[in-house]
């Protein structure tokens, strides 16, 4: 009986080591004062579910509206948000999940941090800024993001309540600069 228990214990510990999350996973990047932490399945799997819902579960009017908005975004940016290959080509790693961390409100403002897995930390922030420029269109609302460096990480202030950075294989989008610095 002891040998069986020892074998089961060994299998449990071995499997935990073999199937553990990769180093630098989002749970390790979030400070301990997080209130809510959500992690999706791999983006590719989520896209399959979303596409199934759009094509099979939505009524015709809603489906047409969703597809029209997708087409409008694709026409401006060249990125199809419902297509895994298109997202991969844009620099998003669809083999990994997206994570969202929610922290205590600061002065009645939600404090949220989103982790999007990316292939290239050096190139993606510039691609994102270019994407914002394309989607602002002719409205002239695009302003070059403010840029600051904190502990060797470049943080962009894209809007009053949108800060971005690339770190450890993720593109971070936060509602405050402080949440990204954590």
Query: Which percent band covers the strand fraction?
Result: 25-35%
Instruction: Give the low-pLDDT segments.
Output: 1-21
Secondary-structure element string: HHEHHHEEHEEEEH
How would you describe the shape?
globular
Q: Output the structural class.
A: alpha+beta
Individual helix count: 7
Q: Average the pLDDT over all residues and give the rounded result.
A: 84
Annotation, overall tally of beta strands: 7
Helix content percent band: 40-55%
Main-sheet strand order equals 1-2-3-7-6-5-4
Distance between the termini: 48 Å
The radius of gyration is: 20 Å
Largest sheet: 7 strands, antiparallel
Give a quick precis of the structure:
The chain has helices spanning 2-18, 26-29, 43-57, 60-77, 84-90, 124-136, 177-181, and strands at residues 36-42, 97-106, 109-117, 146-150, 153-159, 162-167, 170-174.
Give the topology, please:
Blueprint: H1 2-18, H2 26-29, E1 36-42, H3 43-57, H4 60-77, H5 84-90, E2 97-106, E3 109-117, H6 124-136, E4 146-150, E5 153-159, E6 162-167, E7 170-174, H7 177-181
Antiparallel strand pairs: 1-2, 2-3, 3-7, 4-5, 5-6, 6-7
């Amino acid at each position: 009986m002891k040998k069986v228990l020892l074998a089961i214990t060994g299998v449990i510990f071995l499997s935990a080591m073999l199937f553990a999350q990769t180093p630098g996973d989002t749970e390790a990047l979030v400070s301990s004062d997080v209130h809510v932490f959500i992690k999706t399945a791999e983006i590719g799997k989520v896209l399959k579910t979303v596409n199934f819902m759009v094509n099979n579960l939505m009524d015709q009017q809603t489906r047409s509206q969703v597809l029209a908005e997708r087409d409008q975004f694709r026409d401006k940016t060249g990125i199809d948000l419902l297509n895994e290959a298109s997202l991969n080509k844009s620099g998003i790693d669809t083999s990994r999940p997206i994570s969202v961390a929610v922290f205590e409100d600061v002065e009645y403002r939600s404090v949220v941090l989103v982790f999007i897995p990316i292939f290239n930390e050096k190139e993606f922030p510039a691609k994102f800024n270019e994407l914002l420029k394309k989607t602002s269109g002719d409205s002239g609302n695009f302003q070059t993001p403010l840029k600051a460096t904190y502990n060797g990480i470049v943080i962009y202030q894209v809007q009053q309540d949108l800060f971005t950075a690339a770190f450890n294989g993720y593109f971070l989008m936060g509602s405050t600069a402080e949440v990204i610095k954590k």
